[in-house]
Amino acid sequence: MTEYRVHPGLSPRKKQRIGQGIQYTVLVGAVLAVAVVADWGSIAEQFLNGEVAVLMLPELFSIALVNTVIYTVSGYVVGFVLGLLLSVMQLSSVPANRWLSKLYVEVFRGLPAILVFLVLAFGVPTAFPGFRYPMGTYGMVAIGLGLVAAAYLAETFRAGIQAVPKGQMEAARSLGMGRTRALVTIVIPQAIRIVIPPLTNEFILLAKDSSLVYVMGVTLATAELTKFGSDMATRMANSTPFIVAGATYLLITVPLSLIVRRLEARQLETR
């Protein structure tokens, strides 16, 4: 009687290594192909022109970057306060509060941010002749970014409040605190600590959303990085300002991204 030996197939680890090897090979091949085909002289002239980059100084930092930070921080403050209020309304025992909050969240999460800016910049002044935003463009941008951010922050805060053990509220009430006081002094501070990573992520997203300010017709004095880079690129007939503006955004977003990762890792360690 003839015996047949069954040869085992590749192990999952070997299959994974082979798959990774194929992926790396394809990636290296694609990079080499691009490197060979690309016209590096034209790329350097059009996108990495040092002379054009120098001409963007010092306004790149003294105006564009400063305005981007102002828009982001002011919009975040408005969104933080409004989002916290909306989250409390969502958890309210009054049906009207819950409905209004949910309606707001669904509407502003569903609308493109650029449409909100257009309504604020052109729709509101048309509907209310003579109306002026407090602090002009800065106030208008803060309201626009804040309205959009609040819809997302409301959901973040709601999740944080619900993550706080119910015993915290019960203990506060047993000490004679009213529900509102217990919520403000006991529950909300704990909820904010829980959701610090997503709150920081929202700040990063808001910094990038500030690039939509250009639709409001800002001037050079109120231009943020994207508008400033676009104007400089048009003036210089060169794309280097776009690259420089993008790199400047990274000065804000990369450090914040690293902070988010550290905070998330710390939260995992404490669980």
TrEMBL record:
UniProt-listed Gene3D superfamilies: MetI-like (1.10.3720.10)
TM regions (residue ranges): 21-40, 60-86, 107-128, 140-161, 182-200, 242-260
UniProt-listed InterPro entries: AA_ABC_transptr_permease_3TM, ArtM/GltK/GlnP/TcyL/YhdX-like, MetI-like, MetI-like_sf
Primary location class: membrane
Compartment(s) where it occurs, according to its Swiss-Prot or TrEMBL record: Cell membrane
Membrane topology designation: Multi-pass membrane protein
Domain ABC transmembrane type-1: 65-260
Top-level taxon of the source organism: Bacteria
UniProt entry keywords in alphabetical sequence: Amino-acid transport, Cell membrane, Membrane, Transmembrane, Transmembrane helix, Transport
Xref: SUPFAM superfamilies: MetI-like (SSF161098)
PANTHER family for this protein: GLUTAMINE TRANSPORT SYSTEM PERMEASE PROTEIN GLNP (PTHR30614:SF20), MEMBRANE COMPONENT OF AMINO ACID ABC TRANSPORTER (PTHR30614)
NCBIfam families in the record: HEQRo_perm_3TM
Family indicated by similarity: Belongs to the binding-protein-dependent transport system permease family. HisMQ subfamily.
Protein name: Amino acid ABC transporter permease
Organism: Salininema proteolyticum
